[in-house]
């Protein structure tokens, strides 16, 4: 019961109002360092890794909390994460490194600098996560990653293990007058694995072949000086094949162009020679056989394969028309 007491003394009236302390919004919000969930970029072609930023995330970066708070984080509350590593990015089997940026939310607004404390209590990140909004189920802080473009790397599995030092100090219970009734304070270190698998790939430039026009078979000239350019994954050994087209002769293996029901036999030969360029075994061409930059793939530079194409002259001249064929080029690693 509230009581009003009156005191007389030295001519002064002293009024003292005693109120009971009402405690509200108490929270059992306790945080702890827990095992993390790995962050994976998945499997990406070397070309995508080099040209386009890719994203990844971990739903659990090692700090989980339970409880609920009715107010936003105060200025003296903090959830610090200090991320370090012995590497500068994702390290691959040949020593290549893929760089990436770590973010405090799923935008690019809050990048985390390695070795520098990042406070998840600032910018309302903790409030947006609802980290302290679940009295019974622990919620974890996620992190988000974005790869940095420009990495010319070999195929393989790229990994990094991040060390995340957590330190937290926040009000875990609030009184009726907004007075903090107790603080949850703690620290710990979690390890987070990040991985990305780079797959072999190529950028292929293969212009069409045109024999022009002629009245008779013998008047068609050899198409020479033709090239196929390939920019394939750094360090990759590969072979290049050309299939037999859509109208190939089953016996003898000649390629043919078609116009209506009529055919015009032709073929494609390696370099400037007479060896047919095919799609099986020795008929293929190896990266080491390129006329320009022979050897394994360069990633950002092209390897050039020369070829020539001729119409067979030991066939009868077919009726006039536009003759076409489609040949599939494939690269095998």
Termini gap:
86 Å
Main sheet: strands, sense, barrel: 5 strands, mixed
Query: N-to-C SSE series?
Result: EEEEHEEEEEEEEHEEEEEEEEEEEE
State the helical fraction: under 10%
Shape descriptor reads: elongated
Cα radius of gyration in angstroms: 35 Å
Structural class, from secondary structure content?
A: mainly beta
Q: How many individual helices?
A: 2
Q: Order of strands across the biggest sheet?
A: 4-16-15-7-12
Q: If you average the pLDDT, what whole number results?
A: 89
What fraction of the residues are assigned to beta strands by DSSP? over 45%
Q: Any low-confidence stretches, pLDDT <50, length ≥5?
A: 1-27
Strands, total number: 24
Protein name: Type I pilus protein CsuE
InterPro entries: Spore_coat_component (IPR053167), Spore_coat_U/FanG (IPR007893)
Quick tags:
five-stranded mixed β-sheet; mainly beta; 333 residues; disordered N terminus; 3% helix; single chain
What would you say this structure looks like, in words?
- It is a single chain.
- This protein is mostly beta strands.
- The chain has two helices and 24 strands.
- The chain is elongated.
- The protein starts with a strand and ends with a strand.
- The longest helix is centred in the N-terminal third of the chain and has 6 residues, at 46-51.
Structure described in brief:
Helices cover 3% and strands 45% of the residues. The chain has 333 residues and is mainly beta.
Write the layout of secondary structure elements.
Elements: E1 4-9, E2 12-17, E3 31-33, E4 39-45, H1 46-51, E5 55-58, E6 63-68, E7 78-84, E8 90-91, E9 97-98, E10 100-103, E11 111-112, E12 118-119, H2 125-129, E13 133-140, E14 143-147, E15 156-174, E16 180-199, E17 202-205, E18 223-232, E19 239-242, E20 255-259, E21 262-270, E22 285-286, E23 303-311, E24 329-332
Parallel strand pairs: 4-16
Antiparallel strand pairs: 1-2, 3-6, 5-14, 6-13, 7-12, 7-15, 8-9, 10-11, 10-14, 15-16, 17-18, 18-23, 19-22, 19-24, 20-21, 21-23
